[in-house]
Amino acid sequence: MRIGVDSGGTFTDCVRFRGSNIEVQKVLSDPHSPDRALEAVRLLAGSASLRPVAIVHGTTIGTNALLERRGARVALVTTAGFEDLIEIGRQNRPSLYDLNPCREPPLVGRPLRFGVAERIAAGGKILKQPSRKELQLLRQRLRGAGAESVAVCLLFSYANPANERTVARALKGIGVPVSVSQELLPEFREYERLSATVINAYLVPLVGGYLAGMERAARRLFPAAVPSAPGERAGARLYVMQSSGGITTAARAAREPVRTILSGPAGGVEASEWLTRLLGVAKAISFDMGGTSTDVCLMEGSARTTRETTVAGLPVAVPVLDVHTVGAGGGSIARLDAGGALRVGPQSAGANPGPACYGRGGNQPTITDAHLILGRLDPDAFLGGGFRLNLAAAQRCFADFLRRSRSGRGAAPWASCEELAAGIVAVGNAAMEKALRVISVERGYDPREFALVCFGGAGGLHAAELARSLGLPRVIVPQHPGAFSALGILLSDIVRDASRSVLLPVPSTPPGALAAFRQALRRRFAELENAALRELRNDRFATDAAHAERRLDLRYRGQSFELTVPFTRDFLPAFHRAHERAYGYSDPARPLEVVSLRVRLTIQTPQPPVRRRPAVKNPDPAPAFVKAQPAWFEGRYRSTRFYDRARLRPGMQLQGPAIITEYSSTTVVPPGFRCRVDEYGNLLLSLAAIRRSVAAKDLH
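and the corresponding structure tokens:
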């Protein structure tokens, strides 16, 4: 039995397959008790199973620890003279015209930075080794400093890790975890490598303790489950979603938590890739709107990965899926800024107290409250009727906000709670539309060629209006959209990423030199793959079926940044094409440089059967009709039909305005939109005017 768990800021979602059917359980998240996820597992799994049990977990504990600065007390060991690199950074100015910038302090204070007298040249030659006496003194100083975790990152260790390994061996016995840069990220760019290593050390005690507690609790939940590999204890086995997509063991995630800080959003992207492959859609944008934030990702067949992500202002150079996040979710709080303009987010009401309509003490208007006031949420159908929304509490909250806004400077532009609610939804849409433009228009893609895969508990409330604004031809709302990220976590393959910086010039002459160069790269790739395979075997994975994907980081010699292309016989033309698309030009005559080698090993996990259901002969959705009541659209109330998604069948069609309710989410079909149920149970929304103007080739 495999169970996928996604712990979000507002809800924890739990998913399992029973045959071809998906079963979902949602519980409110508790930031003070992250292992609340296991309550959902217990509810979904029922009695303990005698079969092997695998819990695949996506968690935000690492992200939250960075955002809230509540990680471990970290000591940094680096090359003498470079102790302040963590504070100097790249000297970037995020606010160019701010005359009073305020930078966040580094994760390691000056008293906890220790320099070692060692040096390796850029080419890898050892110029000076650390002495045994100095290492003994370093051990004593670290013990006296009260460090809870240690990060080791020496200059040029990616070229030759000998000195770094010597220091790491000397520190193994001091009783605290040691994070070593050449094990995490053997790549050039000292500051980014240092930052990733420090972040890892900062998170190891917290994430390691959390995952260890999860494993103990899982074994208590499933005490009779047989082990799934020789030498394992009985009980459930815990896996963790990685930020780059794919899962790993809890033990490795505890050692390398920097690879898991965006694991929740990665699950949604994985599920979107699975769905678009199933439907044959080549170009899509995933749109995940939860209670706290919205995550978007552009996919052309598959999603891109990036190594330029920042979390809480800190660079995270390990590979992550290229997800863009904005602070707009169902729980995002509306407020007036100093100039009297309406703002929404990034502050969120979370799960406790939550939006005002949750009836748990929340007294600030949120996007969820706005939709309830506009009649777009059925208070009796939330979470399948298991959680009734309090409309009166939301109305009181909005009325109070209106009174306060009218008592300030100037006249409030809203005459009623409905107009205020429509304004809050419009401001939230503007933030999400901007995020969609960042990953499409600003990167040279035409959004009109992409379908929008919409999920998350609040995604269906906004997707159609965003598609209208950007001209997207189709919105795809999968089954159980509120737990879609958990489904992606459940469906994810086992993945191990490995990389190494090489900084090799690409020969252009004589003609045979390039062939010899390719052969030399193959040998280096083989070494990298073998090391990654050993790590997978150490994690007790069967590697016979592992698939290797090889990629190169390339740049024109003298450039500061590189592009990643597949390592094939024609990798040079592929780079020139990628450069043309990214920057508008290419120069095939200019010398090239291979910066880094990258390998991704993938072991496919068993996929559940997917059942296609034949379309009904009568497309009338009357069997799913629940009620008709007014809902606010385009500045006025309009009679709106409500449908129960569980009773909609493939082939049924309906016209907006309509509201489709289900256990994990609500989908709004605005006026002018049509909705059709496909053979897999997905809702396909389209706007007639757009549909006529986009050729079929743009959809597939």
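(Above: one complete record from the training split.) The chain has 17 helices and 35 strands.
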